[in-house]
Amino acid sequence: MRNAIGMLTLVLALSAPFIAAAEPAASPPTKRPPNVVLIFCDDLGYADVGCYGAKGYTTPHIDRLAAEGCRFTDFYVAQAVCSASRAALLTGRYSNRVGILGALGPGAKNGIRAEELTLAEVFKSRGYATAAYGKWHLGDHGRFLPTDNGFDEYFGLPYSNDMWPGHPETPKAYPPLPLFDGKTVIERNPDQRKLTTAYTERAVDFIDNNNDRPFFVYLAHSMPHVPLHVSAKFVGKSRRGLFGDVIEEIDWSVGQVMDALKRNGLDDNTLVIFSSDNGPWLSYGDHAGSAGPFREGKGTTFEGGVREPAIFRWPGRIPAGATCREPAMTIDILPTMASLIGAELPRELVLDGKDIWPLVSAQPGAKSPHDALYFYWDRELQAVRAGKWKLHFPHDYRAQTEDTRTARGGKPGQYRQEKITATSLFDLEADPGETKDVAGQNPDVVERLSALGDRARKDLGDSLRTPGNKPSAAPPKS
Description:
Elements: E1 8-9, E2 35-41, H1 60-67, E3 70-76, H2 82-91, H3 95-98, H4 119-124, E4 129-134, E5 153-156, E6 178-181, E7 184-188, H5 195-209, E8 215-220, H6 241-263, E9 270-276, H7 303-306, E10 307-313, E11 322-324, E12 328-329, H8 333-341, E13 344-345, H9 357-360, E14 373-377, E15 380-386, E16 389-392, E17 395-399, H10 402-405, E18 416-420, E19 424-427, H11 443-460
Parallel strand pairs: 2-8, 2-9, 3-11, 3-12, 4-5, 4-8
Antiparallel strand pairs: 1-13, 3-10, 5-6, 6-7, 9-10, 14-15, 15-16, 16-19, 17-18
Helix pairs in contact: 5-6
């Protein structure tokens, strides 16, 4: 939203929750507002870092974030695909409301609209310096790029790193991959082995150069999206092959950022957030990550596609070693940040996200402010989560096969198409892998969640049942 931000301060009421945590968090500081660093990976699975169960490599810096902050076990993305996921993250709105679905290709006519209020613009309204480094994927035309949408600086790729002439299946489908600095293409088909290091160095320089004012850094790694690339200093470091090497370099990057904060005396006044855009791209076999105990991966509305690692660290404000088991989503980050820094939002702004600071700060009894979270694939409403329950409506999905499990060397295997033929209910506490349909034993729960689905359809549409519906001006009440 490029015009002036309105005069209504966002205040979102939250009901009292459950959280595994130590002491209640202190109130945020009233003098200088906190710096915020948001580290966002690409295709990182739930079990791809140590504190979530990774094997074959180590992630000591990411694990330190969790040990010194709050680790979410039930944190979601809005859609399990690149552009749609990032649209929701940066606007606090379901991607269907934003109008960005799927993964935008080179030269796409669609992109982030001027009418949208981005997370960066929220920070700008409070005098923050803002920067984005890494993957953008919300449009590669000038008006869609980060520097037209609230970021002072940008350096990175405008879309996924496989959208280039080196694609293993369709190399002729893509033009040379551009590397941007601001709105200028400075290189085509850059050496991707250098990307993680280059993004990190730019982020560290930005912290060093803005240590006297509040700042927001969005560090959106291109990895571990395929094609996997790693710098020479990490080649062969892990026992998990190239994938493990890539994750260890991302972990190194986290360590570099943390060192920069400490060196500049900013450690105790900086909120660091770590998460990813969707689950692992399982068709790439040994070049894909792991969803751990969850079903399927990227491109599906099963837990393996939409449940992600999420860690929030802010010494003195977030208790060390806290664990939050309440459902939350990337759409919650914008309203939480707005409330935290005292940003005033336009009266007419419709947000789907909620202020989850009580969850993040591990306040005793804190509970999810959502009565439901909705999971779309493109324009299809495929699932609803409420409490421990998740209801899947009949829909097609792509399933892993022996071909995908044994794919090697960056060449994908083939999925098979499957279908949920009846409305199916899963108890995520007892059955996190969504293997046992308990709809027959819980008709009242099915009825309640089905009604929540109907509410979402009226608001956001559903091409499975109501083709052509367009999102309304207001989100479902929750």
